[in-house]
Amino acid sequence: MRLIESIRVEQGKAHLLAYHQERVSKSLNYLGGATQYIDVETIVGQCLSDATIDYDSIYKLRFEYDLLGVYNVTLTPYKQKDIRRLFLSPISSLDVYSYKWLNRSALLHPQISSTDEVLFTYQGYLTDTSYSNIVLETSSGERISPRRPLLRGLQRQYLLDQGEITLADLTLDDLLQCKCVHLINAMLPLGRLCLPPSLIAL
Predict the structure, then answer these.
(1) Residues 50-69: tens digit of each pLDDT
(2) Nearest-5° angle of CA 130, CA 12, CA 14?
(3) More confidently predicted of 80 and 108
(4) Are 119 and 128 in contact (CB under 8 A)?
(5) The pTM is what?
(6) In the chain, what are the domains?
(7) CA-to-CA dists, residue 195 to 50, 106, 136, 166, 179, angstroms
(8) Beta-carbon contacts of residue 179 (< 8 Å; ≥ 6 apart)
(9) Partner residues linked to 185 by β-bridges
């Protein structure tokens, strides 16, 4: 089974490399490759040395990997998704996407359009969207992320380590009462994509 890793390259620099390395190593260990090692910094260095990039643009450096090696390393301009509607969808398990598998079929929703995004709930509690963790920003300025996400994303972990967010069990009521909901992942630092509650489809 292959996994994927997506790294943000901005102002000519690859961000959060230590977190990417940790995730890749943990994923290989999960696959049974405790002695396997993929050097993320080397992959990034080789890719960027062969590329001509615009310093003012944002790029996604993406690669696939498994116990046998690394595949399909690409560097492409990043375009942020235009989201105009956010709707909730229940799931039956938190284990549907606990690692960044290449196969993301468990997160695909047949009814969404290109400007829709789904926010999964488990037993009434908020988890993740199909491609990001979330952070609710309250009217008092608190920034809170679900305690039990589907994927413990590296941007989420970075923000926790920096003390910028806290964790709690969050419900639909919390979502409706918040100032905005931030979508965060390796490509989306906190504040890049913040949706008002008015976009939530009930």
Answers:
(1) 899 999 999 999 999 999 99
(2) 45
(3) 80
(4) yes
(5) 0.95
(6) 3-77 (3.30.470.10), 85-201 (3.20.10.10)
(7) 37, 24, 10, 19, 9
(8) 137, 138, 139, 196
(9) 188
